[in-house]
Write a structure and sequence with these properties.
Shape: globular
Largest sheet: 6 strands, mixed
Helix content: 25-40%
Mean pLDDT: 88
Distance between the termini: 58 Å
Order of helices and strands: HEEHEHEHHEEEHHEHEEEEEE
């Protein structure tokens, strides 16, 4: 009888421990290495996405410590840092000193140059250009069109003696009419997940193909920031060397190594690009599992900071 109690107790302890691991929201640093013959010197990029105003210690100290330790040359931010609930920059500043996204921006710009694209939540906010002005006033470079008719934004930069082209893609939500802003019902979200070829999405794809038509011939290292991972086929066709995305939140629930995500917005059940490093010949797609601790319970899917190290062939 004594042994039965011991076995039962051991099983309970094991189950509790497994549950703690499964539901852990402890910050994880995920590192990837990408080898490319377009550079002679290594370049380190930190990738942040989908904070959704979650907090990781006072002043976002946990994220900042991870970034500082990695010593990135640049920080890429791929959207959904700000929540869209009852948020309107026309009524007053969104990024107040107590705002969790503001606290991250304030700290991140002191670590490395920051480049950002909007996610669907930022694009849900009316007067998006005013929000972008707030973010840029903090020192973050936002690759965002002021008007729907404007071309997508890009920056030519030099890092460690290497010439890079950093490009941005606004979220398709930005192209909606002003009256269409606002939160969606569950039925509307399900419809979006199962119908990915609407007129708005097709226009968005056509614009990217038109504006970045010559990317495949560029001799520089070409990097694209785009919130949406489900459009990976478009990114591959364009010929970017690497693309950084978020949005999928790691597929919410995982069972490594069998299931890499159960559900992701705009990808549906068992998403193909839920989170990780996806390699296609000369093209690499890095999808962050994001940082949000609010939207849905994460199972075997810890919030993460991605560190991507680009290296020349001789250093690999």
């Amino acid at each position: 009888m004594k042994y039965e109690y011991l076995i039962g107790g051991a099983l309970i302890v094991t189950a509790v421990s497994a549950l703690q691991v499964a539901l852990s929201n402890k910050l994880k640093v995920q590192e990837y290495t990408v080898t490319t013959n377009k550079i002679s010197n290594p370049i380190t990029v930190a990738h942040i996405s989908d904070l959704h105003e979650s907090r990781f210690g006072k002043g976002q100290i946990e994220i900042c410590d991870a970034l500082t330790a990695a010593k990135p040359d640049m920080i890429f931010i791929t959207g959904d840092m700000v929540e869209d609930d009852k948020c309107d920059p026309r009524e007053g500043p969104v990024l107040t000193p107590k705002n969790a996204a503001r606290q991250f921006f304030d700290a991140a710009v002191k670590i490395a140059p920051c480049f950002m694209v909007l996610g669907n939540h930022e694009s849900n906010i009316p007067a998006t250009d005013m929000l972008c002005d707030e973010i840029e006033s903090l020192g973050v470079r936002v690759l965002h069109r002021k008007n729907k008719e404007d071309p997508d934004m890009f920056e030519s930069v030099t890092v460690n003696g290497e010439n890079l082209l950093i490009c941005g893609a606004d979220d398709p939500y930005f192209d909606r009419a002003e009256q269409e802003f606002g939160k969606k019902t569950l039925s509307q979200r399900i419809y979006e997940d199962t119908h990915k070829s609407g007129a708005l999405t097709q226009k968005w794809r056509a614009r990217l193909k038109r504006e970045y038509a010559d990317i495949h011939a560029d001799t520089r290292l070409t990097l694209l920031l785009s919130h949406r991972p489900e459009e990976f086929e478009v990114y591959r066709t364009l010929g970017f060397d690497a693309v950084f995305s978020g949005h999928a939140h790691g597929g919410q629930w995982r069972l490594p190594p069998l299931i890499n995500g159960v559900y992701a917005p705009n990808q549906g059940i068992f998403p193909r690009h839920a989170g990780g490093c996806y390699r296609y010949e000369s093209h690499t797609h890095i999808v962050s599992r994001g940082l949000s601790k609010k939207r849905m319970m994460r199972i075997f899917n810890r919030p993460e900071v991605c560190i991507v190290r680009f290296t020349p062939p001789s250093a690999s």
